[in-house]
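Before a colleague's protein record goes any further, I have to sign it off. My question to you is simply how this chain folds and whether the tokens agree. I do not need a full report, just your reasoning and any doubts. This is what I was given:
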Amino acid sequence: MPAFHKASAAKTILLLFIGSLLLPGASSAQTPLLDLEVIDTLASSGAQNVPISVYMNNYEDTVAGYSFWLLLSRPDIASFQLTFDTVGTLSSSWELVQVNHLGGQPFNIKVVAVANWPPPPTTPGIAPQQGGLPLIKLLIDIQDIPDTTTNRTVDIIVAHANLSEFAFSDPGGTVIGTVQDSVLDTAYFECTFWQDETTCLEWTEVNPGAPYDSSEIYWRTFAVLDTTRVQVLDGSITITGGYACGNINNDPEGNTDISDLVYLVDWMFTGGPEPVALMSADCNGDGLNDISDLVWLVDFMFTGGPMPICGK
């Protein structure tokens, strides 16, 4: 073959290779089907009926039913009501919406909803949409907590370890965003009719731990949530106010250190910003903010004096 043909062939192969890189192909990232997000919220100590908005984006399938389970990380601070709000939400016209405390404990709530419930007329589900209205609003009550409580955030956790905790279904009842998984399992059987000492004519499966005469190891297949295509985002509720005595610069650690002393001097003598919580700078506990608090703080840090007592 002439040399120029080889060069031409090489050029053609190179161009085809480059072109293949530029052509759109299957992405390694899975396109999302659905996500659920609990919105972060602020509330004051002792607040009641605090709304918690839960948002859903569904990208391909119409959602005609859902169930999800939320848990609070701090039951000593917050609790779910059994009251909910669907006005102005994606679930506003749905025929069945229920909430329950599993185990009767208000630190958790199970939400179950179905768009269409017999008899007619038919209520449609939620067509694919993103970020418009909340799916539902839940209500939380906040306990009265002292200002000295430093950890003032309650995580709102979306449980989704299995489909009994989290499932969104299409109008045909198929759960959206599942894949098949399998594990080795063991089935146990008891003979209920022996023909002789070694031959059984009738078997009954029994629960693990019960007496049995035979067992079988097998692959058990089941559906699980595909977390590459269905995503959940936990939320939180933070109680405003509060302070840590001596934490004058309001750093997240809540400690009293040299940075607090510098902050106090800057505020008192050079026009620096005042403390977020003035009470945190009342180091001697007399209800005032003055030079005596600075003296108290210096004494505590450098001469072994008593710790700040803030309003005590």
The chain has three domains: 34-175+227-239, 178-225, 244-312. The longest strand covers residues 178-194. Residues 1-28 have pLDDT under 50 and may be disordered.
